[in-house]
Amino acid sequence: MDDKLMLMIPGPTPVPEQVLLAMTKHPIGHRSGDFSKIMAEVTENLKWLHQTQNDVLILAASGTGAMEAGIINFLSPGDRVLALHNGKFGERWVEVAKAYGLNVDTVSAPWGEALDPEQVRQKLEADTQKEIKAVILTHSETSTGVINDLETINRHVKAHGALIMVDAVTSLGAANVPIDAWGLDVVASGSQKGYMIPPGLAFVSVSAKAWEAYKTATLPKFYLDLGKYRKDAAKNSTPFTPPVNLFFGLQAALRMLKAEGLENIFARHQRLMNATRAAVQALNLPLFAAEGISSPAITAVAPTQVEAEQVRSVMRKRFDIALAGGQDHLKGKIFRIGHLGFVGDRDLLSAIAALEATLQELGYENFTPGAGVTAAAKAIAKS
């Protein structure tokens, strides 16, 4: 049946009908008063979602563009940075930093494990000359379904005095990221995740401390010069032509999120994570991320008695449900169930039921039929 695709991947995520309808309107002039009103509203609501009074700037880019902007606006060639990585996206920031001629030091953990805040503390305390200018990390590592202890790592960074730059692409809008309460300096995210709109917009929250660093930063920048975005945002405008219809969608999505409320948003994602993990365990499939370090945005499964890519193939062809695969050396070894953004209890129960049917079709018999759905339902009812 056409037009029944269900996205259960970590991005793009499903888009609500009222957001889709908002984006179908005719474009308006991006220098018009009407657009300025939209810009003012979405900026205010972005600050609400980010739990900050800092600037939250909007770019026509992906999450990678937001992170690159964060790196290049506050640093200079040769600056020493500490990049923390335990997955594909953490490794990407190492590559970006090196591409701009930064002196990159690292703290790493194996894919599927969380970063050790103690290792970060030791590395920072060893920097007695305060040469490390920034610490760069991914909060929710999309490639593995692991969430890192940002709060503790941030405390160590604050004690050192470096800037902290956070990839919150799959955590912003899914997990609690209280920017002002924690004093986070640069936080990047993307529209196709918890924001519930299509890809194309990126967001960067910038602290006063980061703006001080901006004054002396000399890395090359033009389109991603955040100073330009800050200047124009103060006038409810943008320095370059924005994707106007995505702003219509953003306006509608932020209104929906605000109506739901922050605590309810976080509780929903936690509930979906708990239900997914309970279902996977009831099906006797190995979880890739251990209890306590699992992301509320995505769950990675590492099957041993059935092929991950076969699971994805049957789910897509038989049930029109898209799951994500493994990346790099995990390709073919894991599949990932996204449960962020416009995803609810019904969606998850449908996906788990389809997963059970898929496993049976593939000859996997190491579970009691109905066990996954039952476990998910109990977890949902419990929360």
Automatic annotation (TrEMBL):
Keyword Nucleus part of the UniProt annotation: no
SUPFAM superfamilies per record: PLP-dependent transferases
Any Pfam family hit: Aminotran_5
GO biological process, one term: glycine biosynthetic process, by transamination of glyoxylate
Domain Aminotransferase class V: 10-327
Keyword annotations of the record: Aminotransferase, Pyridoxal phosphate, Transferase
Protein family membership: Belongs to the class-V pyridoxal-phosphate-dependent aminotransferase family.
Entry keyword annotation includes Kinase: no
InterPro entries (UniProt xref): Aminotrans_V_dom, Aminotrans_V_PyrdxlP_BS, PyrdxlP-dep_Trfase, PyrdxlP-dep_Trfase_major, PyrdxlP-dep_Trfase_small, SP_NH2Trfase/AEP_transaminase
UniProt: substrate binding residues: R336
Designated name of the protein: Class V aminotransferase
GO molecular function: alanine-glyoxylate transaminase activity; L-serine-pyruvate transaminase activity
Cofactor: pyridoxal 5'-phosphate
Annotated signal peptide: none
Protein's organism: Desertifilum tharense IPPAS B-1220
Chain segments annotated as transmembrane: none
Residues with N6-(pyridoxal phosphate)lysine modification: K193
Domain of life the protein comes from: Bacteria
